[in-house]
Specification:
Blueprint: H1 6-13, H2 17-30, H3 36-45, H4 51-56
Length: about 55
């Protein structure tokens, strides 16, 4: 969902702001970065692995 604002993601996914923020924070934490921008950059530079595997670590 790179490039979408929190509000746009809420509308697209039919989720509340708190849920979106929580999911974003979980992604940032699991990828061991400090922002969504870093998370996207890190994910784009990884060799292909299952996204599920990356987020379960």
């Amino acid at each position: 969902m790179d490039g979408y604002s929190g509000q746009e993601m809420q509308l697209l996914l039919s989720k509340g702001e708190t849920t979106i923020n929580s999911k974003r924070q979980n992604i940032v934490c699991k990828l061991d970065v400090s922002s969504m921008k870093e998370a996207v950059e890190k994910f784009q530079h990884l060799e292909y692995e299952s996204p599920r595997k990356l987020l379960q670590s």
